[in-house]
Every structure is written in C-alpha cells, then in structure tokens.
Amino acid sequence: MLRHAICTTLCGFAIAASSQAIAEPQRYASEAGQVTVKEIASGLENPWGLAFLPDGERMLVTERPGRLRVVGLDGSQSDPLSGVPEVYAKAQGGLLDVRLSPGFDEDRLVYLTYAEEGEQGKAGTAVGRGRLSDDLSRLENFEVIFRQMPKLSTGIHFGSRLVFDDDGHLFVALGENNQRPTSQELDKHQGKVVRIGLDGSVPDDNPFVGKDGVQPEIWSYGHRNQQGAALNPWSGVLWTNEHGPRGGDEVNIPQAGKNYGWPLATHGINYSMLPIPEAKGKTVDGTESPHHVWEKSPGVSGMAFYDAQRFPGWQHSLFIGALVDQSLIRLQLDGDRVIGEERLLKELGARIRDVRVGPDGYLYLLTDAGSGKLLRVGLEEQ
Question: With 70 as the cut, is the pLDDT of residue 17 above it?
Fold first, then answer.
C-alpha cells in the first residue's frame, strides 16, 4: 500500500493516512486452528522494533535508517519524531529496539537501542531514553545511559533487545560485533547480556561488580548476535535468542555470571563451510548448553511469550520471528521445557523482524524489508 501525501490531525500530531483500505485478513492452517493475518500498515523502511502506547490503539515503530514513528491500528503513520539520536545507519546498524519505561504513565520515557559511531569509523550499540512529548511529535531531553565499549563493529552484529524485569532493572542483549573472541573477554561488552538500572547505573548485585578488569554491567557472556529477548511471564526470568553462524541458532535463559559458550562451544560452522577456529565442540566444560538449539539456522529475531487470554490454543507458547526461514516459529512450552515446534506463515515469504503481543491479545509482527509491513496475527475465533 502506498502512503497518502496528505496528513490529517489526530490527537495533536500529524498522521499520514493510508491511500488504500486495509485488505481483508488472509487465512492459513495451523495446529491450533486457522491463523488470520491482517496487514495494518506498509511502506516502513526496514522496521525493527515496536512498542504499544497505553491507549492500545497506537504504537511506536523504529525504522533502521533512524526514524521513529507513531503507527495506528487504522494504518495511519506519523511523520518521523524529532529528538531521536543520530544513528550509524550502515549494513545491520541503525535504530533498533524500542520499549516504554515501566513507569511510562508518570514519566513518559521511551528507551531506544541503536548503533552509534565512534572513532575510526567503528560503531557499537548504545541505549538511551527521552521523554515522549504530549503531542507525540518528539523525544525530549534524550540522554545516553549505556554504551557498548569498546566500539568494534564495522556494520554487523549489534544485537540488540531491551527487557525490563520486575525489580527495576533493564537487560540489554548485545551482539559481539563479529569479533568472536570478545564474547569471552570480560573487559568488553561484546557478546554479553548486560544488566543496568533504569538510569544506566550498575546494580550492586551484578555478578562481576568489584572485580578488576571486568565491565561491571555484565550479567552473562559467551553470546554471539542476540536478536530476541523477553521476560517469561510465568517465571519472571529473562530468555534470549541469538544467531549461530551457519547452524546453531539458540534460545538461552541467561543466568548471572554464566558463560554461554560462543565461540568455544557451537552447533554451527563458518559461512565458508569450515569449522569455527576457536570451537572445541558442541558442548564444552565450563559453558552452558543452549536451552533450545536449531542445527539449521532459521535466522531467529524478535520473540514474545503468549500469555493473553484471547486465543487459548496459543497459551504457553513462545513466538519467534525467523529471517532466513521467513516464518513465525511457535515453540510449545511445558513449564520451561520445549515440547513442540511449529512453523507458521511461510506462505507470506516475509522476513519477520519483531514479534509482540498486543493489549488486544493479537500478535503484531514487523517484516524486514525496504517497504516493510506491520501485520496483525490471530486465530480464527469461533
């Protein structure tokens, strides 16, 4: 769908209206019943992350070149918000994840991750926050609260996802900038999950606080390129996923101070078809095995636990987008155990970048393309 050039005013901010009516939902078979897919919006340039606003009718959507927009369930799109930081928009870099503060109703803070350029053209992942203006047109007083150090990326493996826990902490899942050994080096943030306060401060009970030569923000290490992260609603514990190389995509449950193996332990090989030089096997003493692993990489991305009441057939499922496989993966859970897997929406032929559960109980997906889409996905209701 092409976007209309004429803007209307809605609740005090400019909205670009869609030039066509939203198409009727498409239907596809699944183990839990007929899946419905409705296109909500299109024409988004490499959308990466979304976060629903409290009204449940609008959301913030990031576009990797550096734009943040308000998108409505009616398909409307705002002009890009001002006040967004300058990003390193090269290759996989740019504006990435977005989350609302746990206290958004009072503080109106929006958190972003993005690739930030440093010296000599190298870049790293940064986290910042700013206040969303009352008219939804800008971020005010944006401040950086965390920087991945040192900056080593030449355009790839930034990660990254943001997850708030229930105790006032913010987890940031980071990539290793395609610098494999750094995942095992505790003086660097590459290939780590970091845990910080909402203002970027270091919690006193982080596992490496007070240790010489160690970045105190580190929660876990030995990760590759983390693309999905979510808080398990039944246990309150962080889960993440990450890209392997050629094979070996993983789901992990990162625990404080633990080593998740990359590049010493991996189920994958190099893209050249040769072994990973540092690898010692699929399992290595002193490292944690993946909670779930794919020998053939689907190219995992954003993920969300389904705990809404709207579709009982999806209860206790973990949904994960797939970029390479161009599908939506549903992992069926019994507690923490994965007891089944289903690949959905392959008929769409779309790289799925983000997955979120909306306040209405539907899944909302972003497709990764130069003209990406926002899709609403549910089950046929009887």
Answer: no
